[in-house]
Amino acid sequence: MENGAGIGVAVPAAAAWNFAPNEALLDLTALSVRSVLGRVKAGMVADGGGARAVVPMGHGDPSAFPCFRTAPEAVDAVAGALRSGEHNSYATSVGLKPARRSIAKYLSRDLPYELSPDDIYLTSGCSQAIEIICSVLARPGANILLPRPGYLFYEARAAFNGMEARYFNLLPEKDWEVDIHGVQALADDNTVAMVIVNPGNPCGNVYTYEHLAKVAETAQKLGIFVITDEVYAHLTFGERKFVPMGVFGTVVPVFTLGSISKRWVVPGWRLGWIVTNDPNGVFQRTKVVDCMKSYLDISSDPPTFVQGAIPKLLENTKEEFFNKTVKIIRETADICWEKLKGINSITCPSKPEGSMFVMVKLDLSCLQDIKDDMDFCCRLAKEELVVLLPGCAVGYKNWLRITFAIDPSSLEDGLDRLKCFCLRHKKPTK
């Protein structure tokens, strides 16, 4: 054989090799939404006759549905950037300055102070932003405070960098507000930051100005800063309007994470940002910004042509597009809220007001032959071709996360199938 490993050639035993996998990574896959959804769908067999389609209510990507297509102005901006021939080169590590200037102007509309381009760092989506922040903060013995339920990607990145994750509760009886007393009890001299997600994934909540003020005051007293995940900014459809955490940047330094993924419905374009909301210059004095720049020098960048498209994308997208998207999500949230009321064994503590999700409690005592939330979702996928995310994937066992940002008719169909599944597995009354 050409590789020399033919007949008569001894192949060294595996123990002779000097490499081995990073076993920490093997454990972290359990914290991935993709991995959990893969397990949920593993036993699912599509309807042989094609009579029923799979209803994807487990992940936050509505882009496949025609009613959620992105704005034509966004497409034109990207196409124009490509055709210009001006964005085929490497970008600077922090991102193209015109893009950063446009994002600073765009975000400053909601703030009591002006951001500069130097406050903006472009990333390959919000996931890379989380990766960068956790890497920058990591030091021996450090811990970070995370919300439960919450996006476990934060824990995965913290663990990979040797940082301890500690969880404070969100309170379902108070519209998923942060348990402020719990935060204070968890923090110690090694706590570096706390994370909030607003509007909320997975809970669909929207924080008030007053509650965010309490979060800022608490963080300031503890000597930590706030990381605020605002990828669902302005995707609100209830009484509460979105308030950015950066409003309180003079009280406590804030890292704001955002992207174009959700508001423009283009998660595959991979353009996100980290913003330093820090008028007092704390991040500069503590050299956190220098550390972040160093990390960006050795990491990958978002596609240059997408960066090049950002100024026109932000400037030209019409308000009608955003209004249409919110109108559809408001409609699907209403459908979800009303239909869930009629499903036994499932309780929805509060009507969602933002993002694309709602958390519902699963009452296993009403069901027979269902072990836990993971078993529920696997069997639902297999029997009804409906995909939900088990609560264990967001740190909330025996709850479910439902995505309602799909085509309204598909959502109604999926919720009807969910009801049929619960009735079929309902524990008989004595």
From TrEMBL:
SUPFAM superfamilies: PLP-dependent transferases (SSF53383). Its EC number is 2.6.1.80. The modification N6-(pyridoxal phosphate)lysine is found at K262. The keyword Cell wall biogenesis/degradation does not apply. Gene3D superfamilies: Aspartate Aminotransferase, domain 1 (3.90.1150.10), Type I PLP-dependent aspartate aminotransferase-like (Major domain) (3.40.640.10). Keywords: Pyridoxal phosphate. It catalyses: nicotianamine + 2-oxoglutarate = 3''-deamino-3''-oxonicotianamine + L-glutamate. One of its GO terms (biological process) is L-tyrosine catabolic process. It holds the Pfam family Aminotran_1_2. It comes from the Eukaryota. GO terms for molecular function: L-tyrosine-2-oxoglutarate transaminase activity; nicotianamine aminotransferase activity; pyridoxal phosphate binding. InterPro entries: Aminotransferase_I/II_large, NHTrfase_class1_PyrdxlP-BS, PyrdxlP-dep_Trfase, PyrdxlP-dep_Trfase_major, PyrdxlP-dep_Trfase_small, TyrNic_aminoTrfase. Residues 55-418 form the Aminotransferase class I/classII large domain. The keyword Mitochondrion does not apply. Its cofactor is pyridoxal 5'-phosphate. Belongs to the class-I pyridoxal-phosphate-dependent aminotransferase family. This is nicotianamine aminotransferase.
